[in-house]
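Async update (no meeting this week)

Hi team, since we skipped the sync, here's where things stand on the single-chain job. The sequence we agreed to prioritize is pasted below, unchanged from the tracker. I ran it this morning and attached the output directly underneath so nobody has to dig for it. Comments welcome in thread, and please keep replies under the output.
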Amino acid sequence: MAKFAIGERVEKTSDDHKAGIVIAIFPTTDGNYRYAVDMEGYGALQFFPEEKLVVHAG
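Output:
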């Protein structure tokens, strides 16, 4: 089961901790999940593995 849900606010665990909203969830062949996230200020979807995201604190 995926850790995050579509519509949930998340942020990256690395770099500048930018926040965004989960738009889609994709299961991988190895049983993990990747997330399409609409990141604030980028104007495009970015894709992250589950371990690179946390629930947005603010």
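Quick observations from my side:
The chain has one domain: 9-53.
The radius of gyration is 11 Å.
Reply here if anything looks off.
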